[in-house]
Amino acid sequence: QVQLVESGGGLVQPGGSLRLSCAASGVRLDYYANGWFRQAPGKEREGVSCLSSSDNTTYYTDSVKGRFTISRDDAENKVYLQMNNLKPEDTAVYFCAKSEIEECFSDFVDFDTWGQGTQVTVSS
């Protein structure tokens, strides 16, 4: 059974940093593209970042470019999202996800497995 479990969310002041982790079981994350999504209250879920498994190409949505970094630890079978210079508009539940394919696309399709999410709140 494939399972993804996120951790690392919390309350942080604007300008602060958080590192989200996603631990996988039942699947090798380095066989597929990995992604991070978020959903703010009253809004649709949006793709934030993706990391391909074929050549480690990364993709970021415009609002987080230069602030967020996605990475993967193959030995630990984990994916991370380092979030710096956080803004109140980053407040959301963050989900990690596994793709069905190796590559990332800007429309964030082809993801088939999701974690339960971790809350990130950016507020003073």
Brief summary of the model shown:
Helices cover 0% and strands 48% of the residues. The chain is an all-beta fold and 124 residues long. Strands 2, 4, 5, 6, 9, 10 and 11 form a seven-stranded mixed sheet that branches. Strands 1-3-8-7 form a four-stranded antiparallel sheet, with no helix packed on it.
Question: Main traits of this protein?
Answer:
seven-stranded mixed β-sheet; mainly beta; 124 residues; 0% helix; four-stranded antiparallel β-sheet
Strand and helix map with partners:
Blueprint: E1 3-7, E2 10-12, E3 18-25, E4 34-39, E5 46-51, E6 58-60, E7 68-73, E8 78-83, E9 92-99, E10 111-114, E11 118-122
Account of the 3D structure:
With 124 residues, the chain is mostly beta strands. Helix content is 0%, strand content 48%. The protein contains no helices and eleven strands. The strands form two sheets. Strands 2, 4, 5, 6, 9, 10 and 11 form a seven-stranded mixed sheet that branches. Strand 4 and strand 5 form a beta hairpin. It is globular, with a radius of gyration of 13 Å. The model has no long low-confidence stretch (mean pLDDT 96).
